[in-house]
Records
---
Amino acid sequence: GAGVSQSPSNKVTEKGKDVELRCDPISGHTALYWYRQSLGQGLEFLIYFQGNSAPDKSGLPSDRFSAERTGGSVSTLTIQRTQQEDSAVYLCASSPGLVADTQYFGPGTRLTVL
Amino acid sequence: GENVEQHPSTLSVQEGDSAVIKCTYSDSASNYFPWYKQELGKRPQLIIDIRSNVGEKKDQRIAVTLNKTAKHFSLHITETQPEDSAVYFCAPGGSNDYKLSFGAGTTVTVRA
């Protein structure tokens, strides 16, 4: 079946602009996660959804970052007033959500803020 | 929150030798212990996992061992091959929710 998909695959924007990143999880997966990975670094947890609610937003770096999930499926990560330090690969993952389980990652969105 | 440490941060091995990466965690309630592999430019993918009711699991050349008392688990790769070169992440979880706490990663290089 289809895996996790993300769009766009690449995004170049100017400092100060807003961007929206989209994640389509595997059908039926109730848990959805957003991570950020800077070049050569590990995975930085941003936020996780269980259904449409976000029990843990502790990783969002600032109030410029927000995320929502609708219909228990698609999620959007929005970064307002982008800064150069926001440049990174943003990875989305989903899991069945019944217990802590395998997370299936999307290909990521590479964000470059000029 | 969970504190996770991986050692070593980099590992270079001769092709055919074994590689071992250790992951130490802090939350004694964690009950799920996966390892992910990320090749250059690719997404992380699960390679093996273990739950707390099992002490060891093996899948061909890779194995994971768990010591719940000491709060650490290890990834073992035998007969390493060039395609094993990648970054490996441990990600314990399962104590209170569905989150996994990723370690900082270990860069493994297999020398031909």
---
Amino acid sequence: GQNIDQPTEMTATEGAIVQINCTYQTSGFNGLFWYQQHAGEAPTFLSYNVLDGLEEKGRFSSFLSRSKGYSYLLLKELQMKDSASYLCVGGNFNKFYFGSGTKLNVKP
Amino acid sequence: GAVVSQHPSWVICKSGTSVKIECRSLDFQATTMFWYRQFPKQSLMLMATSNEGSKATYEQGVEKDKFLINHASLTLSTLTVTSAHPEDSSFYICSARDPGQGIYEQYFGPGTRLTVT
């Protein structure tokens, strides 16, 4: 199957660092993606990993371990506008499979 | 680049009527578009994959006669919700893959909020 698990909700403080974990069980993914979704809006692309290791993109970094079925999204220097849901998405050429999302609350 | 638009942004319709939602890739040609549905506080669920010039591929549990998908050109796919019922009220989002940007990445439209009364 394509079970993708991530925590339901997290809270962090402005300026801090937060790591959102994602585990998955599938043999059909070619890539692991992270999207940000604000309430009532469509998801926006943040980062993706095709190979094992860390991909850094400004304040956002994503890590993948295919052998462990594990990924995380790291957000640095948190800002209030980072309060949103973060979606872990497994994908191949034909389909995306979405996790249930982690709602991140950033407090002052 | 890689902008996807949807129209309308929101629509209210009466039970039993049909509603058409358009998804357009504005600055690239999309041979494949995807239609998702999202209920409140839930994640996106893939409904169907729309391929230009051929029939859409529907996910298990999605009624193809109720959710009609037409991908008539490389920049336009439409989703028609036929004989809508209140339980069809949801946030419908399309996405498209831009072959020029990478074969895996999908770009999402802004979504269409459908309310059936």
